[in-house]
Amino acid sequence: MHVWQLPHWRIICTLSGVGRPVYCMLTRPGVLPVPSIKGENHPIQPKKIQFIHSPVCRRQGYFIFSVMALQQYSDKELRVFLCVIFPYTIIINFMALGECVYSSTSLFLSYAGLTMIYFFAGYFVFGVTGGFIQRRLPSSQDLFKRIGLMLPVFYIMNIFLILGFYAYYENLITLPCQPVRDNFLWVLGFGCFASTVITFINEGAVNWSRWKKAVTETEQLKNAYQKSRLYGLKGQINPHFLFNCFNSLSSLISENEEQAEHFLNEMTKVHRYMLRTDDEQLVLLEQEVKFARSYLHLIAVRFGSAVQFDIDVPENIMNRFLPPLSLQVILENIIYTNAASKSEPLQLRITGKMNKLVIQHSIQTKIIIDEGTLLEGLDNLITKYRLMGAEEVEVIETDTIRTITLPLFTQTFSVL
Fold this sequence. Notes:
Helix content: 40-55%
Oligomer: single chain
CATH topology of the largest domain: Heat Shock Protein 90
Number of strands: 12
Number of domains: 3
Strand content: 15-25%
Strand order of the largest sheet: 1-2-3-5-4
Order of helices and strands: EEEEHEHHHHHHEHEEHEEHEE
Distance between the termini: 28 Å
Shape: rod-shaped
């Protein structure tokens, strides 16, 4: 994470993943960072800034924008270049220009500097080309296919690079040593050999970085699941939640025993689900929807017509998966951060489309004394999706409506 402190503003930037947008936050002094913006150190090379406007962001005094980052072949690319450029320069100058460059120290240094400048520009073009190919074949399973495509392309580029090198010294540089044309094929062969070595070094660096990142993210994912379970337990034993449930139950017992029995049954389902102790990282959407119906029944009894909800999830996606307690986190966030009354009821709708679960609700913001736990739960859910390598949780907000879209998985897996 990078932080720039300005006189009246603070900019915090973080990269969400290799080759993906850099997310930045512009905050006023004294405004806490948005909890869901997390990341890792990464060299930021701004190319395009796009502001993401949100009424909530404006009200709370910060703006979020994304900075599109230039794709690099490897995060060790510059270090590799600095390691190989000096010996590469010495050898290429000797092969192309002969012993003339070693006739004096001043000539040696002059030719070394000029050659480094030329090949620095060439290396940059090679890096951009390698980054382009890597974007097309990003997977570790594509390693041999990627190298098999890169090397022929680099060999062809080396022909033009070495031809340009000869033209560079023959037409632009006025120093006494001139390239030896008879050695062109030897120089080209060495250039291709160097490209092969550098390509394998960069690929090794890329795969090493991916392995370290995978190990780190696996640990972070384990932590995210433990936090999810802890958050579910906190929600279940929350004294306010329990008090509200028992208070509603007490009122129903004296008014309508049948409804009280139904309420108790739904309350039992909710608490049983929230106290899950198994090691599942994903659960069926069908289970989450059943939980949501029971949870919203408790809410409906408590708030009456002040909360209106509709659950219409297509049957054809009920066999998809998502992290457990996802709907509890979102529903609790919606219920406790929005005002609800009979004159202005809180509208909530849960539906699905194209292997995604969509939760939409009206925005009727109320003042919250302590929203830390609510933000922590939602932030943990967003982080969990990110670490699982899934599509990002999408949140679209207008002045009156917020839509949260959760990607669904086609199969379950285990990281524990």
